[in-house]
Design a protein that fits this description.
Structural class: alpha/beta
Number of strands: 8
Distance between the termini: 41 Å
CATH superfamily: NAD(P)-binding Rossmann-like Domain
Mean pLDDT: 90
Strand order of the largest sheet: 3-2-1-4-5-6-7-8
Low-confidence stretches: 1-9
Number of helices: 9
CATH topology: Rossmann fold
Length: about 300
């Protein structure tokens, strides 16, 4: 059986009917394609975005996908459309603000009785925003470290009670093959700022957090994975000409959402569909402890 988009082969995958999936960064690029795939697979999709207009457009697209109403000129049965609409909800937050990350978590905890999968997909690329210049978040944290890593760290920590209650559940962190060891003497890169280094260390931090959290939740029924979905997809965060398609990235991420947990395991890093090895620092327990302590200090989570 193959999804209507023609990319995700669902054979051997866990059914997503009744599963609730929170997807950050769902209004653009791979996130938007993945949100539609999740709706086609029967999941309840919690669409996160920053811009209200883009959120509204994405919600309409995801509802149409869930109702099987994507072909030009097609009209979904009213019952199908209503059912699909019931399976899509939206949440707005700017992940460059830890206060808004906390508000997002509070809203989800208040509104959602369960959460089966959290996909930390939102992120920013190497040069945009800022054109390669160093920028800081609302909280005075280097922007890429704040958005690509700390926001997902804090959101996951705050939603852990709900994920535990919903077990078996999953956390999927969308990282990158582009990784660089974190300099704990200058994590915020205040000296000799390099946007590529900023991006790469933020992505390695995601993987290090994934390994730590998987060990912490080993007996809690919550699995944790990180992946590089695809290389240079045609999205606004890509710094180079496309090599992979958005569909390939969405397929790889969907696998970690929907494949049986026995197949994907926990505490693993994947390059596309294949398990791979991350930067050596990800396996350094002392480095992970330093990152853990810093993350707690910066977020309070």
């Amino acid at each position: 059986m193959t999804a209507a988009r023609g990319g995700w082969d669902s054979e051997g995958m866990t059914r997503l009917d009744g599963k609730v999936v929170l997807l950050t960064g769902a209004t653009d690029g791979m996130g938007r394609a993945l949100a539609a795939d999740l709706a086609r697979a029967g999941a309840t999709v919690l669409v996160h975005g920053r811009d209200p207009g883009r959120i509204a457009d994405t919600v309409a697209e995801v509802i149409a996908a869930g109702a099987g109403n994507e072909a030009a000129g097609a009209a979904a049965d009213s019952t199908e459309a209503a059912a699909a609409a019931d399976r899509v909800r939206s949440y707005q937050a700017d992940l460059a603000s830890l206060a808004q990350v906390r508000q997002l978590a509070e809203q989800v905890l208040a509104a959602e009785p369960r959460l089966d999968v959290l996909v930390n997909n939102a992120g920013i690329g190497v040069t945009e925003p800022g054109g390669g210049a160093r920028q800081e978040s609302t909280d005075g944290i280097e922007l890429r470290f704040a958005v690509n890593y700390l926001a997902g760290y804090a959101l996951t920590r705050l939603l852990l009670p709900l994920l535990r209650r919903s077990a078996p559940s999953r956390v999927v962190n969308v990282a990158s093959i582009g990784q660089q060891a974190i300099d704990f003497g200058d994590v915020m890169l205040t000296k000799d700022y390099d946007p590529m280094r900023a991006y790469r260390q933020s992505k390695l931090a995601q993987i290090m957090f994934s390994f730590d959290l998987a060990a912490e939740l080993d007996l809690a029924g919550v699995t944790v994975s990180a992946l590089h979905p695809a290389t240079f997809m045609p999205t606004k965060v890509s710094p180079a000409a496309p090599v992979s398609t958005i569909a390939q990235g969405a397929d790889a991420t969907m696998r970690l959402i929907a494949a049986p947990a026995a197949r994907t395991g926990t505490g693993r890093y994947f390059n596309g569909l294949d398990e791979s090895r991350a930067n050596d620092q990800a396996y350094d327990e002392q480095a992970r402890r330093l990152l853990r302590d810093l993350s707690r200090q910066l977020t309070g989570a």
